[in-house]
Design brief:
Layout: E1 3-15, E2 21-27, E3 31-37, E4 56-62, E5 70-79, H1 88-103, H2 112-124, H3 131-145, E6 167-170, E7 175-177, E8 189-191, H4 193-203, H5 214-228, H6 234-241
Parallel strand pairs: 3-5
Antiparallel strand pairs: 1-2, 1-4, 2-3, 4-5, 6-7, 6-8
Helix pairs in contact: 1-3, 1-6, 2-3, 3-5
Length: 242
């Protein structure tokens, strides 16, 4: 059975037996993997704290060639993001990020750019930039890597150059739409020039000191939920903090 070293973020863990656990990991090299850590529940296990939620770790995977779960044979902590342990808003933001990676990606479909974006977001949560803005930049990265980045520079319907006035955003069309193209769309949201500009700033990965307008968060969350196919459970906790 081949072995491989990988860099991973711990997204979720589930107890498997009295001594073992199953970990859902987002890895740079292989994308999302689910693997069994034998002895991972023991107080003095070889993994120590490396498989704790939202931990950046280096692992060794033993690949099963006949199906079934891979095995984690080694795991060492690289980074623990201590602010997530003392800032409730940052922690819920990290949980939301983990849920998007765990439920909004395919198994064994690597996206190194999304791995890097997740690391940047986890380092920034609770470090100064508003949590909503940090998550907005990550949401854009997740949408981009998923192939559904919203169209913001031109009308998603006709491709025409929009004006600042009388714009709408449509999840169905995949971005902003002009007055002519929005006709007949039941699912659309009017947006102001300020919101349009803020969305374009987030798309360009601009993390600033001011919080995102609430309407921008609403547009992003609606679009993420549309493509995820459901509302992330962690959003209910996160929204109480933002």
């Amino acid at each position: 059975m081949p072995m491989e070293r990988a860099e991973a973020l711990v997204l979720r863990t589930t107890d498997w037996s009295e001594s073992s656990r199953i970990a859902t990991l987002w890895t740079r090299e292989r994308g999302k993997v689910r693997a069994l850590a034998k002895g991972g529940r023991r107080l003095r296990s070889a993994f120590e704290n490396a498989l704790d939620l939202l931990t950046h770790c280096g692992i060794v995977l033993l690949h099963k060639t006949t199906g079934g779960l891979d095995l984690i044979t080694e795991a060492q902590v690289i980074e623990v993001f201590p602010r997530l342990r003392c800032d409730l808003q940052a922690y819920y933001g990290g949980c939301y990020l983990a849920e998007l990676l765990a439920d909004g990606t395919q198994d064994l479909d690597p996206h190194p750019g999304l791995f890097d974006a997740a690391l940047v977001a986890l380092r920034q949560l609770g470090a100064g930039p508003p949590v909503g803005r940090v998550l907005g930049v990550f949401e854009m990265a997740w949408l981009r890597e998923s192939g559904v980045q919203p169209v913001l520079d031109v009308c998603a319907g006709c491709g025409g150059k929009p004006t600042c006035e009388d714009l709408s955003f449509s999840c169905e069309m995949g971005g902003i739409v002009c007055p002519a193209c929005r006709s007949g769309l039941r699912e659309r949201r009017a947006i102001s020039p300020l919101v349009w500009q803020a969305l374009r700033e987030v798309e360009s990965e601009a993390v600033r000191g001011e919080a995102l307008p609430r309407e921008v968060r609403a547009v992003l969350e609606q679009y993420v939920c549309y493509h995820l196919g459901r509302r992330p459970r962690s959003l209910a906790f996160l929204e109480r903090q933002l």
